[in-house]
Amino acid sequence: MAFALLDQIRSIFDGDPGVRKVADDPVLSAELLMLFRMILADGSVSESEMVAFRRICKDAFGIAETSIDSVIEYLNEFGYETNGSQAIALFRDLDIERRKQLARHMAEIAKADSQLAESEVRLLRRTLDLLDISPVDVVKPEG
């Protein structure tokens, strides 16, 4: 209880820890922006896509649930500075598993609303091409 209160007080003075984590890691920022672009690719934001996004933030990147709204706000405010091509460029030099992880996360969000729009397919296909990843790698289990 006392630690939670201290964390809240510290976040008021230091900023949200989840936002700091994203702001301090350009690759993580780029990945979250690409995931957000996938959410927006079909022209609407579904609750199931946001649930998938929140789960990925928490499970894959260790962003606390209490920070996710602030992270989304940060991405909305500062994401305009980075376009999709710039975001993808940060991934080209990363190892293949990290690139596959981005593609899997994008596919997870695209499928979250049970409707795979053509615009989502195009965005995913273009991303796979730019990252030099086979579509087979996206559907295969990690490992």
Automatic annotation (TrEMBL):
InterPro entries: DjlA_N (IPR007791), TerB-like (IPR029024). It holds the Pfam family TerB. Residues 33-138 form the Co-chaperone DjlA N-terminal domain. It comes from the Bacteria. This is TerB family tellurite resistance protein. It comes from Mesorhizobium newzealandense.
